[in-house]
Amino acid sequence: MRVLGIDPGLTRCGLGVVEGGLGRPPRLVAVGVARTAAELPPARRLVQIEAALEEWIIEYRPEKVAVERVFAQHNVQTVVGTAQAAGVAMLVAARKGLPVELHTPSEVKAAITGSGRADKKQVGQMVTRILQLDAAPKPADAADALALAICHIWRGGAASRYAEAAAAGPGTNGYAQAVAEARRRQNPLSRTDRGVQ
């Protein structure tokens, strides 16, 4: 599975593409940041983010998109811009026919580090370790985008399989196995084939 992780932001929108799946450790495909100038009107900045996201989807051909779920912060202006960028990300993905999943910051931190309260430095260090990189991706928005993609591969994939099994119903072939596998994969940190010791 190839996932585009998006850490939405109006000034810096982190982008990371990771490939991985059952029995395969996550592998970095691409990482970067879409930047917009603060002096531009918000509408122009959103158009620039839209164009960058479309380019990434065309170039890297993700199968799924993972976007950070926006939470209220102390700075209302920051959260509004972040929410607008997240909306553009979801719109671009949906327009391209890609499934979109939202992941909370604490969900991503827990998936990557084992703690929902990890700081950005810890997330960056674990992303570096999981993807076997020489150095942590910078800025932090880029590392966060990769963390979102990894989280989705580990958790989103399991949730999707669980939903498919549940939709198929208990009387279907392989239902119990699918449910057991989905539940087991809800805790990716217990697996050694992911590059996390």
UniProtKB/TrEMBL annotation:
Its EC number is 3.1.21.10. Belongs to the RuvC family. One of its GO terms (cellular component) is Holliday junction resolvase complex. Transmembrane segments: none annotated. The keyword Transmembrane helix does not apply. It catalyses: Endonucleolytic cleavage at a junction such as a reciprocal single-stranded crossover between two homologous DNA duplexes (Holliday junction). Its cofactor is Mg(2+). Its main location: cytoplasm. The RuvA-RuvB-RuvC complex processes Holliday junction (HJ) DNA during genetic recombination and DNA repair. Endonuclease that resolves HJ intermediates. Cleaves cruciform DNA by making single-stranded nicks across the HJ at symmetrical positions within the homologous arms, yielding a 5'-phosphate and a 3'-hydroxyl group; requires a central core of homology in the junction. The consensus cleavage sequence is 5'-(A/T)TT(C/G)-3'. Cleavage occurs on the 3'-side of the TT dinucleotide at the point of strand exchange. It comes from the Bacteria. The keyword Mitochondrion does not apply. This is Crossover junction endodeoxyribonuclease RuvC. SUPFAM superfamilies: Ribonuclease H-like. GO terms for molecular function: crossover junction DNA endonuclease activity; DNA binding; magnesium ion binding. Pfam families: RuvC.
